[in-house]
Every structure is written in structure tokens, then in C-alpha cells.
Design brief:
Blueprint: E1 8-10, E2 16-18, E3 22-23, H1 31-42, E4 47-49, H2 57-66, E5 75-80, H3 87-101, E6 106-111, H4 119-131, E7 135-141, H5 145-154, E8 161-165, H6 173-182, E9 185-189, H7 201-210, H8 214-224, E10 228-229, H9 236-242, H10 252-259
């Protein structure tokens, strides 16, 4: 049972990753990124998830310099963008991200999307960074089962994480089961379906029973399903509220009810059909 913001899951290589963190997708670089990352860390968050394409790695890096938490207590994730995929270009993209973040090592580096014909070479670059001690864990994002199977057939090192769109309208059971079987930690992006789920009547009524918000119920559901989650917010009160989910538990029946809301409905692109 996850009891606090500092609680971690152990990845298959023994690295501890916080169950809960702050995502910074669509957070503007500069003061907005600095303020939201500092607000999260000052309120107990230890995991921050960014990506090259978010164009806010510098703001995140600046915030990391301004907080009073030792580097080794933080867990920082970034991702290689699609246009940089391939072996040599990924290694260059990594250096560029590290420079912007101002870090000498990274906790988790992800392949952002399964770019056809490229992700296996990209993965080889991640394996090199991992072996060289530049990254503590490596993983993928938006990979379906068939992408994972293909990667595993070519990989030397199994991904530690698969970060996917995951929420009550898209619970990706097949991917979840496969990752469990392979010891790959599942992580949710867009856990609140960009706010769409906050008015879902079933979730609202469960939330009322627990005297919690709809967002808190969904994020609790993630954790009880064994899924790491990284909701995004730029408002300090919301950052605090999102993390206030360690003092209640959803019953097995409530979990089933929320599981039953699945419609296989995405808010983002389909990993089998994207053009960016």
C-alpha cells in the first residue's frame, strides 16, 4: 500500500522510482516551469517528468538548482523526441537535454514514441547511456505490446518503464498485463484525461463518499492498480491537492466500478498511427 509521496516502486534493475510525480507537459519554459517544479518539490514531490519536445528542460533545471533537496533524493525523467531518434542523434539529443537540465546524470530516459524503423537503434543508444552510468534507468513511452515484443527481440536490456496514456476511459489492460508479466513498470500520462474525467458521474459519486475530489480518486485508482502517475498542474494548491491521496483507500468494488468505465478512448495519438 502506497503511504506517502516519497514511496517508491522498485524497477527491475533495483532502482527506486517514486509512485507519484509532477508532469510538466504544456508548462511554459521560464518562470512557469520554475515555479511549478519548485512548488512540487517544496511540497514533498521527488519525481519530475519532462521531455525534449516540451521545451521546458531549462526551466526544470533552474528549479532543481533553486530547491533545497539533495540531487540524489530526486528522480528526474526526460525523453528523446521523434526527430532525434536513431543511434548517434539520440546520443546528441541526450547531451543537449542534460545541458539544459544542468545535470550530470539522469534517473530515467525514455524513447518518446515508437518511431517505425528507428526505435531499435534509439534503444541501443539508451543501452549505451545506461551502461556508461549516465542514466539510472531506461524505458519507453507509448509502446503497444507488439512494439515491446519487437524491442525485446532486439534489446540487450529490457525497458524498466513504459509510460502510456492511461486513465479510466483507456485502461490499456493488454499492455498492462504484458508489462506486469515482463517486469516493466507501467506509468500513466494524462491520468485525468486532461480534465475530461473530472465530471464523470461515477467518479464524482465515489469521490463524495470519500470526501475527496474526482482527481484524487482517479490518481488513487492509478496507484492501487500498480501504475506510477504524474499529473500536471501549474497551480500550487492543485499540486498539493493532487498529492493528497495517501489517507484513503478505494474498495475492491470501487476499483472494479472505475475499471468498468473503460471505452478504449484516447485524448492523444494512437501509437500505431501518429505523424509527428
Amino acid at each position: 500500500m502506497v503511504k506517502s509521496l516519497q514511496d517508491t516502486t522498485t524497477l527491475h534493475n533495483g532502482v527506486n522510482m517514486p509512485w507519484f510525480g509532477l508532469g510538466v507537459f504544456k508548462v511554459q519554459d521560464g518562470q512557469e516551469a520554475i515555479d511549478s517544479v519548485k512548488a512540487a518539490i517544496n511540497n514533498g514531490y521527488r519525481s519530475i517528468d519532462t521531455a525534449a519536445i516540451y521545451r521546458n528542460e531549462e526551466g526544470v533545471g533552474q528549479a532543481l538548482k533553486e530547491v533545497d533537496v539533495p540531487r540524489e533524493d530526486l528522480f528526474i525523467t526526460t525523453k528523446v523526441w521523434n526527430s532525434d531518434q536513431g543511434y548517434a542523434t539520440t546520443l546528441e539529443a541526450f547531451e543537449s537535454s542534460m545541458q539544459k537540465l544542468g545535470l550530470d546524470y539522469l534517473d530515467l530516459y525514455l524513447v518518446h514514441w515508437p518511431v517505425k524503423g528507428k526505435y531499435n537503434d534509439t534503444w541501443k543508444a539508451l543501452e549505451k547511456l545506461y551502461k556508461d552510468g549516465r542514466v539510472r534507468a531506461i524505458g519507453v513511452s507509448n509502446f503497444h505490446v507488439h512494439h515491446l515484443e519487437d524491442l525485446l527481440a532486439h534489446a540487450e536490456i529490457k525497458p524498466m518503464v513504459n509510460q502510456i496514456e492511461y486513465h479510466p476511459h483507456l485502461n490499456q489492460q493488454e499492455v498492462h498485463d504484458f508489462c506486469k508479466k515482463e517486469g516493466i513498470q507501467l506509468e500513466a500520462w494524462s491520468p485525468l484525461k486532461q480534465g475530461v474525467l473530472l465530471t464523470e458521474p461515477t467518479i464524482v459519486s465515489i469521490a463524495e463518499k470519500h470526501n475527496k475530489s474526482a482527481a484524487q480518486v482517479i490518481l488513487r485508482w492509478d496507484l492501487q492498480n500498480g501504475v506510477v502517475t504524474i499529473p500536471k498542474s501549474i497551480k500550487e494548491h492543485r499540486i498539493i491537492e493532487n498529492a493528497d491521496i495517501f489517507d484513503f483507500e478505494l474498495s475492491a468494488e470501487e476499483m472494479e466500478t472505475i475499471n468498468g468505465l473503460n471505452k478504449n478512448e484516447r485524448i492523444g495519438a494512437d501509437p500505431d498511427n501518429f505523424d509527428f
